[in-house]
Amino acid sequence: MELSAAAPPPRRLLPLWPGWRQLPRDARDTLFLVGVIGWTVLPHLGHLPLWCALLTGAVLLWRARLALANDALPGRWWLVAVLCVAIGLTLWTHRTLLGKEAGVTMLVVLMALKTLELRARRDAFVVFFLGFFVVLTQFLYSQSLPVAVAMLVAVWGLLTALVLAHMPVGQPALRQAASLAARCALYGAPVMVLLFMLFPRIGPLWGVPKDGLSTTGLSMSMQMGSIAELVADDSVALRVRFSSAPPPPEALYFRGPVLGRFDGRDWLPLPSPPASRQGAGAELRVSGRAIDYEMTLEPSRLPLLPLLEATPEAPRIDGLRVTRTGDLQWRTNRPVAERVRFKAQARLAFELGPLEEVPGLQAYLDLPPGANPRTRAWAEALHAEPRNAQASAAALAQAVMEHIRRAGFVYTLTPGLYAEDGGLNGIDEFWIDRKQGFCEHYAAAFVVVMRAMGVPARVVTGYQGADAEPIDGFHIVRQSNAHAWAEYWQEGRGWLRADPTAAVAPDRIVRSLRLEPAPGLVASAIGGVSPALLARLRNGWEGLNNRWNQWVLNYSRGQQLDLLKDIGFSAPSWEDLALLLIGALSSLSLAGAAWAWWERRRVEPWARELARLRVALRPLGIDAGLHESPGAIGKRVTSRFGGAGAALAELLARLELQRYGRDAQRDPPSGLLRALRAEARRLTRRQLPA
């Protein structure tokens, strides 16, 4: 049966998977681009709505199928309909089309839909640049080392696809395009490093929002008993390095929010003016050996620094104003939204607060009416005992500690809910009935008992302890080191620390033996075979991650000026930094222009050899033009010289195939060019008279 002249040609379908080398170039390049886009979007899956992830995956799989089947792309109206649905779902999910979350969602959808419009090279360029933008947006969520490596691979893949789009001849190997993309990236690396080192850091605009905040870290409030099962978070909260021998684990208290107001359920901070406005009664009195330390603090949602007790002077941090309050909190003018590094000095021997009773202490005696009546009655009975009737605050605190040690209290991270009915008697249930809990239960109950006996007291939260072995000289304090303890006031001494957790679980304090989270499947398998190997792998990763944080993420304005000092500037300023940056960029620009001029004048080896051949054939009566291909020149040689020119014609045909065939290469093998040159000389010697 014959087809009419007007009938369209039959569509050639590809097998399900004919093999990577057997794919037509368009299909191969499209599949590669789809794979690169999938890799680029993959780290975003934890931040995207479920519908966006499913839609993006479906579109990319559909585009891959169209490439394999050599099928037509969908019409524009279909894409418009899907885009309208995506816009509606974005509005339904985020309530807006503006902002980070909604913007990233729409960007991912647009990039996926654009792959269904790959009809021309300009469409591919739009996809490439959308991909580069998606790579950039990933750093709005995380700047960790694994994300940086993944995005580096994504950039390499996008550059490879961009190189393929500029190689229209033949079917160049992906390895060749990837190699050229890698070389281009390496050529740009010096400029990247130069900008990283010298471009001014303008805080806080320089900082990028960091990884999600921890689930068990610090907070400006505490609800005793509200957590049924506290899952230990093993992520890093801060790293600290001491200039001399580190303090013992039981002395490592990093002070965070101080909570003095209790409404029966929640512990909240009391209004606390700066120490400079509270008079001599709020002074911090330090003594003993000074401990110099350097801290790298991970991002948090809190406007304060958890410094080592007691740090008397504010550390200097670019972009942050740090102020000490009367209760020894180091408040910042904004939440710490980026990783910061600073140096400070602490003295472990200190006294805080008024030595004599002042009106402000009354706030630390208040208890909500009607809340926890049994605990208050127990405390009043303890205070009424003859041995405690005239006892000091320290003696009363010791009596409470002895009760914790002897009354069968248990330290556990899974105590269950207290006061499930929403009542105000959670501490009664803990202190009198169940006697199971973790640090915040013990600290809160201790403070209520002390207040019921007429002793001012408050809850202090922060971190206690650190990993036993330092990594790269830094001791790691994790979110699982988050801790709550108590302070009570005694006349003549001020505020004194009391840690009820040490009475029930001394190893938690003295040896920093926190309860570990359940390991994952891989960690369990490795730990079961070799616990030492698991520890080495973990320490190696922590060390690598610390170097990334210190050398890359924590590179600050101060370090930029220190760099200028190292290269000879006696008193560097921002003007010196700007001039150095401008001079370096100008020099690199001139070097790049000179290299481009040299490249433009450089002739490829095969073209140079073909030009020599044209000159050699001219005396033999063959005047080959510049427009003629190697194969056309070979046919003219065979037509004029017959069998004598067959060898040269065959070499010219091979050259054309190498340069313009299916497996074309930019630079044909040097052996082929040498053989072509030798055969041209032999033909010239035979045909020209001596």
Q: What labels describe this entry?
A:
690 residues, alpha+beta, five-stranded antiparallel beta sheet, four-stranded antiparallel beta sheet, disordered N terminus
How would you explain this protein's 3D organization?
- The chain folds into five domains: 20-198; 222-510, no CATH class; 521-553; 557-601, no CATH class; 605-687, no CATH class.
- Helix content is 47%, strand content 13%.
- It is built from 21 helices and 17 strands.
- The strands form five sheets. The protein has a five-stranded antiparallel sheet with strand order 8-3-14-16-17. A four-stranded antiparallel sheet has the order 11-6-2-15, with no helix packed on it.
Architecture blueprint of SSEs:
Elements: H1 25-41, H2 50-69, H3 76-94, H4 100-114, H5 121-138, H6 145-165, H7 174-198, E1 222-223, E2 236-242, E3 253-259, E4 261-262, E5 266-268, E6 284-297, E7 304-305, E8 307-308, E9 322-324, E10 330-332, E11 340-352, H8 373-384, H9 393-406, E12 410-411, H10 426-434, E13 436-437, H11 439-452, E14 457-464, E15 475-478, E16 482-490, E17 494-498, H12 501-504, H13 506-510, H14 521-529, H15 531-553, H16 557-566, H17 574-601, H18 605-617, H19 630-641, H20 646-660, H21 670-687
Parallel strand pairs: 12-13
Antiparallel strand pairs: 1-5, 2-6, 2-15, 3-8, 3-14, 4-5, 6-11, 7-10, 9-10, 14-16, 16-17
Helix pairs in contact: 1-2, 1-6, 2-4, 3-4, 4-5, 5-6, 6-7, 7-17, 8-11, 14-15, 18-21, 19-20, 20-21
Rounded to the nearest angstrom, the distance between the terminal CA atoms is: 65 Å
Count of discrete alpha- or pi-helical segments spanning 4 or more residues: 21
Largest sheet strand order: 8-3-14-16-17
Mean pLDDT across the residues is 78
Unreliable segments of 5+ consecutive residues? 1-10, 204-216, 226-231, 276-281, 521-527
Strand count, sense and closure of the main sheet? 5 strands, antiparallel
CA gyration radius, whole angstroms: 37 Å
Give the class from helix and strand content and strand pairing: alpha+beta
Identify the overall geometry: elongated
Q: Beta-strand level of the residues, as a percent range?
A: 5-15%
How helix-rich are the residues, as a percent range?
40-55%
Number of strands: 17
- Counted up, domains total 5
